[in-house]
Amino acid sequence: MPDPFLLATLVGGLLLLALGGDLLVRGAVRVARALGASPLIAGIFIVGFGTSLPEIVVSVNAAFSGSPGLALGNIVGSSIANVFLVLAIPALIFPVFAGGPGQVRALFATLLATALWIGMTTIMPLTPLMGICFLMVLIGYTGLSLFAARRDEVAGKPTGVREHEPEGPPLWRALIYVPVGIAGLVYASTLIVSGADGLARAIGVPQEYIGLTLLAVGTSLPEIGASVAAAARKRGDVLVGNILGSNIINILGAGGIVAMSGTVELAPLFHAYDHWVMGFAAIVLALLILTKAKIGRLLGLLLLLLYAMYIYGLVGGVSLLGLYEVIAG
Fold first, then answer.
1. CA 260 to chain centroid
2. C-alpha distances in Å from residue 211, one per residue of 175, 260, 313
3. What is the CATH number of the domain that holds 312?
4. Most buried of 37, 45, 215, 252, CB within 10 angstroms?
C-alpha cells in the first residue's frame, strides 16, 4: 500500500500545476496585450506555449532531478493521451469538427515530430545534439506558423489560433499572476516528481509506468478543461489545433530540453509498445483531420476505448514488437 503522503503530494502537485499554468497564461496574455502585442502573437507564443508548460516543466524537472523515466514517460504518454483522451472527452458533450484552418500544416509538423522522436530514439539514445536538433525544428515551425497565420489574418481568413477572451484580469492583477504562476509551476513540478518517484518505488514499478499513466493524464488535465470550453463555444477547430500544437511542443520542446540534460537511454518498454501506440495515435489524428471528420459521441467513445486498451496493454505487459516477431517467425 503506497504511503498516503506520497499520493497527496502527487495529487496536490497536479492541482497546483493546473492552477499555476492557468494563472501564468491569463496573466501573460493580459500583460502582452497591454504592451501592444496582437491577439495572434498572444495566441501562438503565450497561449500555445503556455498551455504546454505543465508537461514541459514536469518533464524537465524530472530529467534534471535524475528521474529520466518519469520525463520520457510523460512526453510519450501525453502525446497519446492528447489524442485518445483530450480529444475524446469534449466529443462526448459537443460535436467536434476536424480539418479546420491551419490544421493540415500543423498535422505535418506533428507527424514529423513523432517520426523524428520514434526513429531517432530507436537507433540511438537521446543526446544533447539531438536535443538541439529538436529545438531548432520547433523554432522553425513556430516561425512558419506565425508567418502563415499572419498572412491569413491579413487576408481576412480564420487563423485557427487559440485566443483567450478579450476581457481579462486588471493589469495590476495580471502582473501578480505571472510570477505567482511561474512559482506555482516550478514548485508543483517538484512535488509531482517527488511524489511520482516515491510512488514508483513504493509499489515497485518502473518510473516509466508512472510517467506514462498518472503524470501523462495529470499534466493533460488543463488541456482537457480548455478543450471542453472550446467545444462548448463550437470552436472545434481551435480544439484540434491546440492538440496538434501541444504534441509538437511536447515532443520537440520538452523532448529537446530533456535531451540537453545528457545522454538518456530509453527503456525497452517504449520500443516494444508505447512508441507503436504513439505512432498509431498520430495516424488516427491524421485520418480525422484529412477526412474533416465530425467527431461525435460514437467516435469519442471509440477513442476512449482505444485509450483504455492502451492502458490495459501497458499494465498487462503487451509487446507489439514481440507479437510481430512471433507472427513473422
1. 19
2. 33, 19, 15
3. 1.20.1420.30
4. 215
**How does pLDDT run across 121-173, given as a tens digit for each residue?**
999 999 999 999 999 999 998 888 878 777 876 676 665 555 555 556 788 88
Q: What is the DSSP string of 100-123?
A: -TTHHHHHHHHHHHHHHHHHHHHH
Q: Which residues make Cβ contacts (< 8 Å) with residue 74, sequence separation at least 6?
A: 55, 58, 59, 62, 211, 212, 215, 216, 219, 254
Residues belonging to the chain: 329
Domain count, the chain: 1
Higher pLDDT, 178 or 159: 178
Distance CA 68, CA 53 (A): 18
- Cell numbers at residue 64, please? 534534471
What domain range is 82 assigned to?
Answer: 4-328
Give strand pairing partners of 264. Answer: 126
Q: pTM value? A: 0.84
Non-local (6+) Cβ contacts of 97 within 8 A are 236, 237, 292, 293, 294, 295
